[in-house]
Design brief:
Strands 6-5-4-3-7 form a five-stranded antiparallel beta sheet. A three-stranded antiparallel beta sheet has the order 8-10-9, with helices on one face. The chain has a two-stranded antiparallel sheet with strand order 1-2. The longest helix has about 35 residues. Helix content is about 60%, strand content about 15%. It is of the alpha+beta class and about 425 residues long. The protein has 14 helices and ten strands. It is elongated. The N terminus is likely disordered.
Length: about 425
């Protein structure tokens, strides 16, 4: 039956080609396609400088760039619809199905190719675009019922279940659409909760992750139910999947559970400055599997969540972001230690990143071999901006203050004692 309908459709197409008016419309369609191929690149080159001049609105710039790359198809669609209007206005003949069908197909491709760019994965986006355009092409040609029957005829029966290509196509479309919408909605809610002022950063991330996971599972269940699949039949499969997760995906599940624990107990949060092993930096984001940590040199480390549970983590900003920094130095014995302490405290207080409260303090720690040894202690509230640079700034401030006051920074001296007399005589250079 399906083959008979397909044969009738092919015969009707060949019969239509014998009509002179159909051949004329095919010639018009060919002329429109050639005009689009010739005029499209010229129009694109003329409009590109104006589009690139829009820099303050990046979203509008990206949208116009997508439209600009499809200029030839837009020209084809516009010329096609102009041809349909002129045919009906001049000849008063409404039989312009060929030109109208071609214009509709090109217009549909322009819209679908732009909308499909919302899918970040390029391969999935192209696949979705071609699938959507093929469906619209069949709908325009009036062959959707024949295509559905053809796909439904190719089926495989497993037990009491009949699986056809039509069912697989519907399942791929429904499940893909449901997951795409749920993931997009979950990402939007996750970003909103992460920046909510009424919630702590850890709680916002936790609620966002739970909402995203829940809506994806709910969308999957709705998609399967809409296809007529009984969810109770998946009980055995879910049990086998649980066993597989327990053995094969142990690390993945461990990192996922560790991430939930980290978010629940609020031990770390985005923006915290931490040290884990040899890694020192601040937390950029918390993910379901890892924590993104950025160091001062711009390197981003993706540390598994399990490491934050099993290893010792040094948090520089768990309860308070203020930390104390120590700077050690020495001065000559001829210096007044009271004056040295005062100058060091004033120099440290003049550095912008040093906190006024608690105030910097300076103590004499030892009478060294060649210097009076001091320790200067001060507090900073932004350790994520680095500690070595603030130490250097304080030492430079102390150097300027000591130099202005005439206080010397000693260096080791060595004396050589000769037990036997040494006679020094002058000799002419060779």
């Amino acid at each position: 039956m399906v083959l008979g309908r397909a044969e009738d459709f092919v015969l009707s197409v060949f019969d239509g080609l014998l009509d002179p008016w159909v051949l004329i419309q095919l010639g018009i369609v060919l002329a429109v396609l050639l005009a689009g191929l010739l005029l499209g690149p010229l129009l694109e080159r003329r409009l590109e400088p104006r589009v690139r001049a829009i820099e303050r609105q990046p979203r509008l710039l990206r949208f116009l760039a997508l439209v600009l790359r499809r200029t030839r198809f837009i020209v084809m669609a516009a010329l096609g619809w102009i041809a349909v209007f002129l045919i009906r206005a001049v000849t008063l003949d409404t039989r312009s199905a060929v030109v109208m069908g071609a214009a509709s197909l090109v217009s549909a491709w322009v819209v679908i190719s732009i909308v499909s760019r919302l899918i970040r994965n390029r391969m999935l986006g192209r696949l979705a675009a071609w699938a959507a355009w093929l469906f619209i092409a069949l709908w325009i040609l009036g062959a959707t019922d024949e295509a559905a029957e053809l796909l439904d005829a190719a089926a495989l029966t497993v037990g009491s279940t009949r699986i056809s290509l039509l069912l697989l196509v519907k399942a791929a479309f429904v499940i893909g659409l449901a997951l795409w919408v749920s993931v997009g909605l979950g990402s939007i809610v996750e970003r909103r909760l992460a920046i909510a002022r009424d919630l702590t950063p850890s709680l916002g991330v936790l609620l966002g992750k739970l909402f995203k996971i829940g809506i994806v599972i709910f969308a999957g269940m709705i998609a399967l139910t809409s296809l007529g699949i009984d969810l109770t039949a998946l009980t055995v499969f879910s049990g086998a999947l649980g066993v597989g997760i327990g053995f094969g995906l142990q690390k993945v599940v461990s990192n996922f559970v560790s991430g939930i624990i980290i978010l629940a107990d609020k031990s770390i949060k985005p923006g915290d400055t931490i040290s884990l092993g040899e890694t020192f930096g601040w937390i950029r984001s918390l993910r379901s599997r890892f924590v993104a940590v950025i160091t001062r040199d711009g390197v981003e480390y993706l540390i598994p969540n399990e490491d934050f549970i099993t290893n010792r983590v040094v948090s520089w900003s768990f309860a308070d972001t203020k930390i104390r920094v120590d700077v050690r130095f020495g001065v000559a014995y001829s210096s007044d230690p009271h004056e040295v302490r005062r100058l060091a405290v004033e120099a440290a207080g003049a550095v912008p990143r040093v906190e006024a409260q608690p105030a910097p303090v300076c103590h004499l720690t030892a009478f060294g071999d060649s210097s009076l040894d001091f320790i200067l202690r001060f507090w900073v509230s932004d350790p994520q901006n680095g500690l070595t640079n603030v130490r250097g700034a304080v030492l430079l401030a102390c150097w300027d203050a000591f130099k202005a006051a005439g206080i010397e920074i000693p260096f080791p001296h060595r004396e050589i004692v000769m037990k036997t007399p040494v006679k020094v005589t002058g000799a002419a250079a060779p």
